[in-house]
Amino acid sequence: MNTKSYVLNIKIIFIILYTLLGVKSYAENIFSQSSFTAFNGIPSAFISLGAYHPTFAMVVEKNFHRLSVFKLLPDGNYTVVRTYLAITGKEQGDKKQRGDNRTPEGIYFIVGQKDGSELVRQWGPAARKYGPRAFILDYPNIFDKRQRKTGSGIWIHGVDSDARMLRPFDTEGCVALKNEDVIDIAQYVSEFQTPVVIVDEMQTISMDAIQKERQRVFKMVEDWRKSWENSDFKKYLSFYSDNFQSLGKNKDGWREFKSKLSETRKGSITVQISEPKILAFRNQLLVEFFQKYSSPDKDDFGRKFLYLRQEKEGFKIIAEKWYNSQKNQTDLAVLNDTKKRHD
């Protein structure tokens, strides 16, 4: 072996050792509780988490490799109750299309879950990489679809081995936790109620600023409710974007649809809503609440989701979603408590 080859081989060995030591150092760091810090402050995404107590919400920060669980306190503030190590997509950036190995960024809800046996039935031996449980996120949501993003099957799941957690960017787009953590986190999950905001890094906001924004959005939603209840369609439609689409209808179709319903029901309707969840991400707002609609020939109760986007004249509704629910005493109590505060 000549001197040149010898030096080259030494350099290669040095690089390999440096890489291995780097991985070891990273492993020691991420598994050290003292070095794994919790989020500090009020997340700018949580304008309101409604009136449920306790209510939980989650934030995934890709750059910090952590999933934080927040609890709503009676005074409207938030506290971190759990911080979990989390790994995300192999590729950096927001998900755009199927197979790009990126973790999507935005406002999502947990809409279902699968235990280990269900995963095995569906995926066979390949299910090992998902660990003992998976929580299903509603990607692509309406905001994603409007941006023509594709793909599906974005979950929060476990791993085949905790050693996988040594690689901070290692999934095909999902969020992965240690197996003990994906089991522990189940206590904070309520399907269609638990929001998960995924970002590179969550910004903080002051309590004064969040209170002002909360009141502004509360007023907008209450004005929307009153205009609907009063069949004031000019004002009602002023809350909607010209790019609105829902139930296969654009804004003009929505106007005609609502006008006909009002005529059929002779304008005699009442609309009650609970204090809404309000979640913010970039130029988007997602508003969710219980809604009770009553008229002479129809009585509905369920969850309403309003999807709003910032436009020149402020936030406008680009879409709605409705889920019928069975009435229960807890949900009705929240609805009635909100009504008392507004009366």
UniProtKB/TrEMBL annotation:
<comment type="pathway">
    <text>Cell wall biogenesis; peptidoglycan biosynthesis.</text>
</comment>
<protein>
    <submittedName>
        <fullName>L,D-transpeptidase family protein</fullName>
    </submittedName>
</protein>
<dbReference type="InterPro" id="IPR038063">
    <property type="entry name" value="Transpep_catalytic_dom"/>
</dbReference>
<feature type="active site" description="Nucleophile">
    <location>
        <position position="174"/>
    </location>
</feature>
<dbReference type="InterPro" id="IPR005490">
    <property type="entry name" value="LD_TPept_cat_dom"/>
</dbReference>
<dbReference type="GO" id="GO:0071555">
    <property type="term" value="P:cell wall organization"/>
</dbReference>
<keyword id="KW-0133">Cell shape</keyword>
<dbReference type="GO" id="GO:0016740">
    <property type="term" value="F:transferase activity"/>
</dbReference>
<dbReference type="GO" id="GO:0004180">
    <property type="term" value="F:carboxypeptidase activity"/>
</dbReference>
<dbReference type="Pfam" id="PF03734">
    <property type="entry name" value="YkuD"/>
</dbReference>
<keyword id="KW-0961">Cell wall biogenesis/degradation</keyword>
<dbReference type="Pfam" id="PF24125">
    <property type="entry name" value="Cds6_C"/>
</dbReference>
<keyword id="KW-0573">Peptidoglycan synthesis</keyword>
<dbReference type="InterPro" id="IPR032710">
    <property type="entry name" value="NTF2-like_dom_sf"/>
</dbReference>
<keyword id="KW-0808">Transferase</keyword>
<comment type="similarity">
    <text>Belongs to the YkuD family.</text>
</comment>
<feature type="active site" description="Proton donor/acceptor">
    <location>
        <position position="157"/>
    </location>
</feature>
<feature type="domain" description="L,D-TPase catalytic">
    <location>
        <begin position="56"/>
        <end position="199"/>
    </location>
</feature>
<dbReference type="GO" id="GO:0008360">
    <property type="term" value="P:regulation of cell shape"/>
</dbReference>
<dbReference type="GO" id="GO:0009252">
    <property type="term" value="P:peptidoglycan biosynthetic process"/>
</dbReference>
<dbReference type="InterPro" id="IPR056203">
    <property type="entry name" value="Cds6_C"/>
</dbReference>
